[in-house]
Amino acid sequence: MPESGAAWRLEEFRGQPCVGLHLGEHDSVRVALHGAQVLSWVAHGAERLYLSPRAVFDGHGAIRGGVPVCFPQFNDRGPLPKHGFARNQRWALAAEPGGSAPDALRAVFRLQDSPASRALWPHAFTLELELLLHPGRLDLVLTVHNTGAQALAFTAALHTYLGVAQVAAAEVQGLDGAACWDALSGERSLQRGAIAFAGEFDRVYAAAAAPLRLAQPGIAPLEIAQSASWAQTVVWNPGALKNASLADMPADGYQHMVCIEAAQVESPIALAAGAQWQGWQRLSVPA
Ligand SMILES: O=P(O)(O)OC[C@H]1O[C@H](O)[C@H](O)[C@@H](O)[C@@H]1O
């Protein structure tokens, strides 16, 4: 274990088994085995993720909030259930969590193909989500391993719900000039300036080379970086109307979240038999 005060433990949250990583008093992460879904990330004492108070924890459906892992399909762009099946299945801890550096904790979750996954998608695979918790920083590393004898192809995302005090006052910086596809209008254009939110927003951006920033008045900004292996970044907020159609969101839920997703949406990743792919997202509160 790293410095004193660092620990991991099995926890229960809303009836679901979870793993908690705790680095001292002020940094922690909680992950449900269902979907290996991160439900909470506390950085320097402040929660930075949004988890809907109406999220359903039935061990079957998707949990609204935190960091859903979308695999092997992004959204409804294909024949599989929306955002694939990985967020709807029980993952396992790959090994006992522990210290990875003097001031860091690491946990790895694993999902392998099963009769349930093969009924939907006829491929052999191992999916791993590695979490590295540092003071003020969380790294999420997704690895896809084709363990079968046939090639496979997938799209995916780390569908991160970031918490905001008031979405109308929040801004996403760092995508100025990026090519974007508006999922609402179908139009392609270039982003001009920072992203602000005044209604439903659902856009797929060509990923930027430098980290993005989520800026809010009076709150330390959050930096969001992703590996170059993800071609896109998705930015989503349902706005009031779409929010009202989401049974697992409270009426004001959309005001308190912005999704910034490291994603591979437009061209599937092809993996030959035995090949691996890795993509990460890093969330940090700059010192
Ligand atoms: O409601 P879900 O299946 O979790 O999807 C939530 C959202 O995910 C992504 O951000 C997509 O770009 C949106 O179009 C979608 O509405």
From TrEMBL:
Which keywords describe this protein according to UniProt?
Answer: Isomerase
Taken from the record, one Pfam family name reads: Aldose_epim
Q: Which Gene3D superfamilies match?
A: 2.70.98.10
The protein's annotated catalytic reaction(s) are: alpha-D-glucose 6-phosphate = beta-D-glucose 6-phosphate
| Superkingdom of the organism of origin | Bacteria
Q: What class of enzyme is it?
A: isomerase
Q: Which GO terms describe its biological process?
A: carbohydrate metabolic process
Active site location? H159, E261
| GO MF annotation terms | carbohydrate binding; glucose-6-phosphate 1-epimerase activity
List the GO terms this entry assigns under cellular component, sorted alphabetically. Answer: cytoplasm
Q: What PANTHER family is this protein classified in?
A: APOSPORY-ASSOCIATED PROTEIN C-RELATED (PTHR11122), GLUCOSE-6-PHOSPHATE 1-EPIMERASE (PTHR11122:SF13)
Please state which protein family the record places this protein in: Belongs to the glucose-6-phosphate 1-epimerase family.
Protein name per its UniProtKB record: Putative glucose-6-phosphate 1-epimerase
State the organism of origin.
Answer: Variovorax terrae
